[in-house]
Amino acid sequence: MISCINHDVYYELEKDEGFDLSDETPNLNEKGEYYLIRWPAKGFVIGTGSFSLGGLTLEEVVAEAERIVQQKINWLNNWLNNWLNNWLNNWLN
Question: Is the pLDDT of residue 16 over 70?
């Protein structure tokens, strides 16, 4: 699953840990977004699994996910994906 978030997770973690980020900017696209690849755990239980670094464009992230699994993926775009993306954004914020 690919999720779109509106913050740079690693930038925010480093900022929270007190790193000097005065010369840094969050790694976000022109819309202020970043895409993550979510690898669900067995059984596709909500809130489980792991994340991979994604990218700034949907095309870039799709290519990366397909490179990792070494085959083309039949992507679904439906209400469940939208619901899960909203849930994920709320969980991460």
Answer: yes
Q: Are strands 2-5 and 50-55 parallel, antiparallel or unpaired?
A: unpaired
Give me the residues paired with residue 51 across strands.
38
**Dihedral sign for Cα atoms in the order 76, 77, 78, 80:** positive
Tabulate helix, strand, coil % of the chain (nearest 5). Answer: 35, 15, 45
Query: What band does 19 get if pLDDT is binned at 50, 70 and 90?
Result: very high
- Tell me the CA distances in angstroms from 88 to 15, 21, 48, 56, 68, one per residue in order: 21, 26, 11, 18, 22
pLDDT digits (tens, 9 = 90+) for 63-84: 999 998 999 988 776 666 677 7
How far apart are alpha carbons 85 and 88 in whole angstroms? 5
